[in-house]
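[step 3/7] inverse_fold.run input=structure_tokens len=299
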């Protein structure tokens, strides 16, 4: 992950006066979560996002994405620092003890959703924080709802399972991203973390992101997702030369992919795989993909 944004483990964090803490699990980061950041932007002070490590979550189900991809996306948020929580280390802490350690009882602002609860058995509610932390300005933000229902990460996971990228695009702040493991530069295949929510088998418009030390390189592609986790990358090399993407795509990608971490970003469904004879990408498919590819899809 690029290191342009400071990420600090909870046990190493040193609080300062007038910090603004935006606290939540944030397994995904959707429009509802962004409403908390909008509130923080109205205030003066260091914006500290307090979130769980996606690779150490309390639930037993599949996670939305891996922690590396999650933090890489956070570099574009209007925040100054991330405090990273590991459930295995703090899951048994009382909520007020956790908040006292986080803030150091210094003057600060705490921004949470109105349904926020923390600590052992989720016993600490927003009203408890207001009563306990006398130096804290506690802001409970109304839950963002669409058509009477709140946006939930479980609904986003379901959309992934069915390959509904349009639903995801309408709800997420960033395009859906995950880390590519074990990239094979001969077969152009990669693996996903097996603990991530499955994505419907198919071909998706997207990009491969190469994480450099202080920046990134982006390569437009069709991404093939397979049930056996041998997923494919098909770079789109005949796009507009004046685009923001790299020009000499194949050469640059081969050099960069050998030395740096890769993220996969998917933005729109090209074709779902519903029959075994539909698993092969053709030259006509690639031509169609390059003809229809739209850089405006990328956030």
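[step 3/7] decode complete -> sequence:
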């Amino acid at each position: 992950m690029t290191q342009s944004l400071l990420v600090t483990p909870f046990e190493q964090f040193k609080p300062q006066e007038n910090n603004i803490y935006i606290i939540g699990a944030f397994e995904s980061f959707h429009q509802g979560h962004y409403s908390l950041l909008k509130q923080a932007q109205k205030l003066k002070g260091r914006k500290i996002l307090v979130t769980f490590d996606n690779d150490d979550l309390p639930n037993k189900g599949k996670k939305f994405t891996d922690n590396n991809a999650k933090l890489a996306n956070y570099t574009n948020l209007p925040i100054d620092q991330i405090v990273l929580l590991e459930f295995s280390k703090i899951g048994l802490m009382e909520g007020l003890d956790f908040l006292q350690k986080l803030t150091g009882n210094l003057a600060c602002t705490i921004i949470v959703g109105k349904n926020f609860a923390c600590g052992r058995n989720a016993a600490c509610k927003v009203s408890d924080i207001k009563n306990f932390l006398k130096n804290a300005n506690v802001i409970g933000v109304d839950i963002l709802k669409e058509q009477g229902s709140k946006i939930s990460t479980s609904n986003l996971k379901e959309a992934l399972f069915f390959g509904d990228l349009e639903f995801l695009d309408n709800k997420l702040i960033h395009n859906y991203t995950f880390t590519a493991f074990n990239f094979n530069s001969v077969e152009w295949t990669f693996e996903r973390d097996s603990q991530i929510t499955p994505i419907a088998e198919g071909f998706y418009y997207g990009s491969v992101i190469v994480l450099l030390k202080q920046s990134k390189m982006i390569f437009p592609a069709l991404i093939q997702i397979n049930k056996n986790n041998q997923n494919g990358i098909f770079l789109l090399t005949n796009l507009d030369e004046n685009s923001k993407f790299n020009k000499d795509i194949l050469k640059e990608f081969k050099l960069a992919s050998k030395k740096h971490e890769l993220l996969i970003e998917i933005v729109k469904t090209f074709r779902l795989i519903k029959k075994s004879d539909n698993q092969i990408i053709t030259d006509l498919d690639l031509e169609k993909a390059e003809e229809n590819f739209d850089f405006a899809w990328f956030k």
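[step 4/7] annotate
Confidence is low (pLDDT under 50) at residues 242-246.
The domain at 175-297 is CATH 2.40.30 (Elongation Factor Tu (Ef-tu); domain 3).
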